[in-house]
Write a structure and sequence with these properties.
Layout (H helix, E strand, L loop, with lengths): L1 E9 L7 E12 L10 E12 L3 E10 L7 E9 L4
Antiparallel strand pairs: 1-2, 2-3, 3-4, 4-5
Length: 84
């Protein structure tokens, strides 16, 4: 098994724009966990919201905190909700 940690917090400003921050950590195998620089740690600002028509979005710019990940990463998630 591998250890992983995700954290997200946001401020509910208006339904279409909620600023926040995110942190992701991929720690590796629990029985043989590597050091900090070999793990994958990312942190950065994000925007969340719900647009008209049922479209939700998450947009983030994540910075690499350890040597095991790239210096920057762009995150974009789109979700469409429709009644069934």
């Amino acid at each position: 098994p591998e250890g992983e940690f995700k954290w997200m917090t946001k401020y509910n400003y208006v339904s279409w724009l909620n600023p926040g921050v995110e942190y992701y950590a991929e720690l590796g195998e629990i029985g043989d966990m590597p050091g900090w620089d070999e793990q994958k740690h990312r942190f950065g600002p994000a925007l969340y919201g719900k647009l008209p028509g049922g479209l939700k979005y998450e947009l983030g710019w994540l910075f690499g905190l350890s040597d095991g990940v790239s210096d920057h990463a762009l995150k974009l998630n789109l979700e469409y909700e429709f009644p069934m």
